Description:
Layout: E1 15-18, E2 32-34, E3 42-44, E4 46-50, E5 56-59, H1 63-74
Amino acid sequence: MKNTNTCPKCHSQEIMRIPDLNYFSDNHYSNIIPTGLFSVARAKITRYICISCGFSEEWVESKKEIQNLLDAAKGPDPVEY
């Protein structure tokens, strides 16, 4: 949906983008993935939701944050998801 602006399930083009608005918050409703057990580094998640059927996708849009996730997975204490 991010790239096509079309829902793959119902083909609607009514797509809502919900960025992470609470990036530095401990709010449990924030769209983040921690990149380490005790790390303050996080990867922001942007959600795309189809208004017609409710189908959703989640994207890490920053290449740097994707690299942080890869580094955390390879680190001395790998993070498993």
